[in-house]
TrEMBL record:
Residues 1-23 are annotated as: Disordered. Residues 24-143 form the Cyclic nucleotide-binding domain. InterPro entries: cNMP-bd_dom, cNMP-bd_dom_sf, FAD/NAD-bd_sf, FAD/NAD-binding_dom, Ferredoxin-NADP_redctase_2, RmlC-like_jellyroll. It comes from the Bacteria. Keywords: Flavoprotein, Oxidoreductase. Coiled coil: none annotated. The keyword Oxidoreductase applies. The keyword Oxidoreductase applies. This is Cyclic nucleotide-regulated FAD-dependent pyridine nucleotide-disulfide oxidoreductase. PANTHER family: THIOREDOXIN REDUCTASE 1-RELATED-RELATED.
């Protein structure tokens, strides 16, 4: 519902509309406006009316019918104009569909007529009209990307050498939270900014929200709560608790929620799993031009929420037990989630290099993902990637866009052995990528930051120094199953046993414990591919239904 407050930033009535950018600001057709009119109410609001403010939550979806509306960021160091929309354009971004707090303010530049659609009705529209829903969703995703590019949102202030500062930046980036990074080591105005906030430079990293609220070295959970990312745990019993929000967990959430199961999804860090760190997935069905892992995850989250799935992120599962006929998932925050059925989809993490200095350089020079966040840290310096699979190949190609030299180190001589053919060809053809075959990284050289790595030839044992500012380790797979030790049978490598291998009662994805299932990379014997995990996540819901029906719970 529009408020009567006014904005401090005055936008002239003749301010031109912001041009569309790749579909971020589309203009709706008369037919689309007619469709939307069935879901909302027309309202007239006077010039200067604020439709929603930065920090608001659960505000409406607005379509401009007459007049102009400006989108501004008022709590930046200097209030600034983000976009201007005229008739036929709509406001909002992903926050509307994910339940997060909005990062900008919308104010009427002139007297305007708007169509206001409640969020629940917007979700119904997205479900009812695929074409219009996809247009709105794509615009929302692109706007969120644009916001991240220009530094809209909260500010993280700290030192690039500080582990907690890197943690906060990584959490914000992996969860696609737009933010501005202020480095006290390089920004000459950082000290004045901290002083204005009443904070000394010696204090740990700080997060500034809405220009005034300051959190000193917050936990990931506190940061998530600040922007409305995390749903409060519900004590009522859920039909299904999905532990892990990678491709398998997200697919399961979509199918479970769409089929009427009360579903809650947890992840210790971010939605999307390892797939979300991929700069481009080109062999996923239905996306001939490819899609980033982050966008694929965002689309899946919105899709699952549309059907009623609830997300709690971060939400780290630390235990699994049985009580009074229910499964109980214990969380690191001290809460418990009660469920009729549990799906383990916690995925895997890359293995660490067993080299002295790795611990010291993790986060500053040693990384386990190659996203835009890590790429920005590398600037125009040479980098090194360790690994021979698709993730390593995608990382090398992505990093080669800005790094003059990308060294790819593999332990064998056949690049196509573990890498898709198209990707291996692309690596071979890149003038910026040098492949070190039959080799391994054996030493890290550098104090606060990496300056060189020592590479050893596994045949000749000859060693060679390589100048590098960052090391990307994308090798092996260690399952996230520590929380299941002693509760669910695991194989020798720690992967969850299912089906006949586990003497399970609930089909090929059932574990030995009745009502507990596993899919995706964490499952023993699974194919480690995004499409495979998605397939398993969708199929397992049939087995969940069968279990619930047999127990008389559906």
């Amino acid at each position: 519902m529009p408020t009567s407050s006014s904005s401090d930033l005055r936008v002239p009535a003749d301010q031109p509309e912001t041009p569309d950018v790749s579909g971020a600001y589309p203009r709706l057709t008369d037919e689309q406006l007619m469709t939307l009119s069935r879901y909302g109410d027309r309202r007239s609001v006077p010039e200067g009316t604020v439709l929603y403010c930065e920090g608001d939550q659960d505000c409406g979806f607005f379509v401009v019918l007459e007049g102009k509306v400006a989108v501004v960021q008022e709590t930046a160091a200097e209030p600034r104009l983000i976009a201007v929309h005229g008739p036929g354009r709509f406001l909002g971004d992903l926050a509307l569909l994910t339940g997060q707090k909005v990062l900008v303010t919308a104010v009427a530049v002139t007297d305007v007529d708007v169509l206001e659609v409640r969020v629940d009705r917007l979700k119904t529209l997205v479900a009812d009209d695929q074409a219009l829903g996809d247009l709105i969703l794509r615009a929302f995703i692109l706007r969120r990307t644009l916001q991240a590019t220009i530094g809209v949102g909260l500010r993280i202030i700290g030192s690039k050498y500080d582990r907690d500062a890197r943690r906060l930046r990584d959490f914000a980036s992996r969860n696609r939270i737009p933010h501005q990074w202020v480095d006290v080591e390089e920004d000459p105005q950082a000290e004045d900014l901290l002083r204005a906030l009443g904070i000394t430079v010696a204090v740990k990293p700080v997060v500034v929200w809405k220009g005034q609220r300051v959190l000193q070295n917050p936990s990931n959970t506190e940061l998530a709560d600040l922007i409305g990312l995390r749903a409060a745990p519900n004590r009522a019993a859920h039909d299904l608790v999905v532990v892990g929000a990678g491709p398998g967990g997200l697919a399961a959430a979509v199918y479970a929620a769409s089929e009427g199961l009360s579903t809650i999804v947890l992840d210790a860090f971010a939605t999307g799993g390892q797939a979300a760190t991929s700069s481009q997935i080109e062999n996923y069905l239905g996306f001939p031009a490819g899609i980033t892992g982050g966008e694929l995850a965002d689309r899946a989250v919105v899709q699952a929420r549309k059907f009623g799935a609830v997300f709690t992120i971060p939400g780290e599962a630390t235990s699994l037990r049985q009580a009074d006929g229910y499964h109980v998932v214990g969380l690191a925050e001290g809460d418990d989630l009660i469920a009729h059925a549990v799906l383990v989809a916690t995925g895997v993490r890359y293995r660490r290099l067993d080299i002295p200095g790795t611990d010291r350089l993790e986060g500053s020079s040693v990384y386990y993902a190659a996203t835009e966040f890590e790429a920005q840290l590398c600037r125009q310096d040479p980098v090194t990637v360790v690994g021979g699979g698709n993730s390593a190949g995608q990382a090398a190609c992505f990093l080669a866009r800005r790094s003059p030299v990308v060294n790819l180190v593999i332990r064998h001589d056949d690049l196509g052995r573990d890498m898709s053919h198209y990707l291996a060809d692309r690596v071979e053809q890149s003038p910026r990528i040098k492949v070190w075959r039959n080799s391994e990284v054996c030493e890290l050289i550098g104090d606060d930051e990496l300056s060189e790595v020592l590479v050893r030839d596994l045949h000749t044992h000859k060693k060679q120094r390589i100048a590098t500012s960052a090391l990307f380790v994308l090798i092996g797979s260690a399952p996230h199953t520590g929380w299941l030790q002693g509760e669910i049978p695991l194989d020798a490598k720690g992967f969850v046993l299912t089906g006949p291998a586990a003497d399970g009662q609930d089909g090929m994805f059932g574990t030995r414990r009745h009502g507990v299932f596993a899919v995706g990379d964490v499952r023993s014997g699974s194919v480690k591919r995004v499409a495979s995990a998605v397939g398993e996540g969708s199929v397992v819901i049939r087995q969940v239904h069968e279990f619930l029906a047999a127990e008389g719970r559906r």
